[in-house]
Amino acid sequence: MSLAGKVAIVTGSGRGLGLAYAQELAAQGASVIVNDVDAATAAEAVAAIEAAGGTASAVVAPVGPSATAKALVDAAFERYGRLDILVTNAGVLRDTVLWKMSDDDFDTVVDVHLRGTFTCVREAASRMREQGEGGRIICIGSPTGQRGNFGQTNYAAAKAGIVGMVRTWAMELKKAGITANAVIPVAATAMTATVPYFHAAVEAEAKGEAMPAFFRHDLGFGDAGDVAPLIAHLASDAAAGVTGQAIGVGGDRLQLWSHPEPVATAYREGGWDAAALSEEFDAIVGERLQSVGEKFPPLPEELQPPQA
After folding, report:
1. Residue 265, in any domain of the structure
2. Calpha distance 43→56 (Å, rounded)
3. Cα–Cα nearest to 251, from 214, 226, 273, 230
4. 278, exposed or middle or buried, with CB in 10 Å at 0-12, 13-18, 19+?
5. Reported confidence tier of residue 225, pLDDT bands at 50, 70, 90
6. Beta-strand pair 253-257/178-185
7. Residue 269 domain-assigned?
8. Distance CA 49, CA 157 (A)
9. Cβ neighbours of residue 190 closer than 8 Å, sequence gap 6 or more
10. Overall number of domains in the chain
11. Residues 6+ apart with CB under 8 A from 205
């Protein structure tokens, strides 16, 4: 696989998962536009890519506004002459339960994740269509958007919305040879660092040690370096036939998420009135009701977090 001659934008790539994506794309030969809201962080990311022999430059701006999307795409064309790959990774968290979530908590997360993905993809896809050589759109989702998560109304809404947009864009952009896919990463982040269940995994990563096999294999939980190769693959010519998909990756595990499909169907001539529903509902759907949230297996005793 080679991305030589390709040009990529990775939003929110100053650190963490986004930086890993930018570094992997650069290692495969792409020239990369790095994006962050902090100039020093963006400069450090560019320096790290260049020190490894890659090519990168930075655009410092908050993702969300259309002006930022235009600045990112303009930079790709002005500095490298084209655009082939967009990875929408930028995001923020404002976690709290529904009854405590403020308008600002909700709007901030939706604006960066959902609106930011929309504005960046709209601008990039428009320019890719003009360029006439196809392209790759890779949007970062989350297990929270697939399954829900306590305290993350805003984040769940945004990440679920991203997958819905990806499915739509796959249809709209097919004729132009532009693929659109969502990646669902499961990796150590600032968020998982605060969850006691992941203590042993986060501690191992902080020490530069291998994560216990329980996390890598049983949970499919790893570090940023485990996710980045999938980004590079979806950005390559080898993935030209993959579009409209939600693909999970983490630790030792790769997953293809299904699209929502009916799990129970019944018909009643003339339609369903309240009495008929009361009588038949449990028999039709009762044993097929879907679970919510992620269900983790019990931690082995040796991986239990220290007691406070």
Report:
1. no
2. 10
3. 226
4. exposed
5. very high
6. unpaired
7. no
8. 33
9. 16
10. 1
11. 188, 211, 223
d(CA 134, CA 153): 35
Q: Which carries the bigger pLDDT value, residue 298 or residue 65?
A: 65
% of the chain surpassing 70 pLDDT? 99
- Beta strand pairing call for 135-140 and 85-88: parallel
Residue 155 catalytic?
A: yes
Whether 295 is in a domain gets the answer no
* Cα angle 124, 83, 244; round to 5: 55
The candidate with the shortest Cα–Cα distance to 227, out of 189, 186, 198, 258, is 186
- Cite the DSSP H helix spans in the chain: 16-27, 39-51, 66-80, 103-110, 116-131, 143-147, 153-172, 199-206, 213, 224-235, 274-285
Query: In this structure, what CATH number is given to the domain that contains residue 119?
Result: 3.40.50.720
Domain interval for residue 85: 7-187+223-257
What b/e sequence results for 248-262 when a residue is b if at least 16 CB atoms lie within 10 Å of its CB, and e otherwise?
bbbbbbeeebeeeee
Which one is catalytic: 80, 155, 197, 267?
155
- Look at residue 171 and tell me if it is in a domain: yes
Element (H or E) spanning 86, and its range? strand 85-88
Residue 188: pLDDT band (50, 70, 90) is confident
Give the Cα separation of 261 and 259 in Å (integer): 6
> pTM surpassing 0.85?
yes
Among candidates 128, 114, 150, 144, which has minimal Cα distance to 248? Answer: 144
3-state helix, strand, coil in the chain (%, to 5): 50, 15, 35
For the stretch 13-16, contacts whose Cβ atoms lie closer than 8 Å and that sit 24 or more positions apart, written own/partner, are: 13/45, 13/87, 13/89, 14/38, 14/41, 14/42, 14/44, 14/45, 15/41, 15/45, 16/189, 16/190, 16/224
